Amino acid sequence: MKKKAFLAVLALCVAISTGACAGGDKKETNETKTQAAEDKKIEKGEETEGTEEDKEEEKEEPEEKTEEKTEEKTEEKTETEEKEIEEKETEEEDKKADSKAPKGDTRLVAVKDIDKYIKIGEYKGIALDKTVHEVTDEDVDAQIEYELSNNKEEVTDKNGTVQEGDLVTIDFVGTKDGVAFDGGTGNNYDVVIGSGGMVPGFEDGILGMKKGETKDVPLTFPEGYGSDELSGADVVFKITLQNFRRAPEFTEEWVKKNTDFTTIEEYKADYRKRLEEYASVMAESEMSSNAWNMLLESSEIIEFPEEEINNCIAEYKKQIEVYAKQADMELMDFVTSQGYTEESFEDECRQYAEYKVKQNLIIQGIMDEEGFSLDDEECLKIQQEFIKNFGVKDLADLIDKYGQVNVDESIGLLRIERFIVENAKITEKVSNGEQEGVDGNVEDTSVDEASENSKEDEAIEAEEEGQD
Fold first, then answer.
1. What's the pTM?
2. 213 and 142 in contact (C-beta within 8 Å)?
């Protein structure tokens, strides 16, 4: 986002303009004082600079002159007072307008008259469901099993053989008619048996092997698999098993060795608690997403600001050009290689632009209405959360990684999502459909850090996916 130099310049301009007004008043006041001094001299019969004739006239008509000067002085004083009152009223009106206007100069759309382009749907007091998945014993067991599978231990039994689900490290050479073929050789290669990551028959050939064993595994490539040379071809893979690892058994011994708990029951209870917290996080995230989608659907475009549309199309094409350059191709060559015609690509660019512009009109319209800005305290707080949660050192790094537009739009989107939820009527439920409780407008709608991280990830990922 832009730096706050604009605010500093604006403050400086205000100070200068105020000083200019004050200087003008001072000049007028000095002139009035000078005239008053002259009046006093006249009243006292003192001489002022001028011709002898002027002096004579003054001596002849001192009373008449004094009356005229007094009237002029009174008129000037009245005009000055009226001007001061008018300036004070204007200043008060400006202060009231400034208090409503959003601070900061960074906007998601350049247009100011947003009502001309979109009718924003209701975003305060909307009804939202927060549906939390009910954690069962089966959920706990499944997650523990998944964790064990990700912490496999090497099988050291000399008589141990490879089983389904084991992670094996192998060397292999594939040959056709006794000659090694391209792409058929690998060293220190990891494969999970049963994952289906290799050509059919390859993983089955490793089942029952022992550490250090070498084995020839004959198989036939499927029709249409790989190159024409290998499609339907009979080949032989010479496979050497270096080692293999297996998920440990879930015992109290494992719990004591690998966790901070001493019993299976304690570990399961903690795991359940973590799953319930995660379920709440996901329910909060889904509710926020639903809130935004409801607003998006209920908001009606009156007309698109074409300049904004053209800017978004240019932005989208610029991103596609990056991919094209990475593939060492021209833009349209890359686009056609992805299955698009020139016409269908232009249609997609337009659809992307219309979605982005509608989104940004809604966000900016609400921010204008509520007096928010991308430089206000809440948005700066979200900015710092992004910096922390995306593992970058500062804002410049964040922008360098995701782009200025993505960062601004993501902050704005998350700011408005939070605002909608804060002002919503939330009904909490469990995933089996039973109502957990209705609390009207939930007082405490804050979510924990994990929930915020999830929504921040979604916000920036959504911006990137929109460009993909």
1. 0.59
2. no
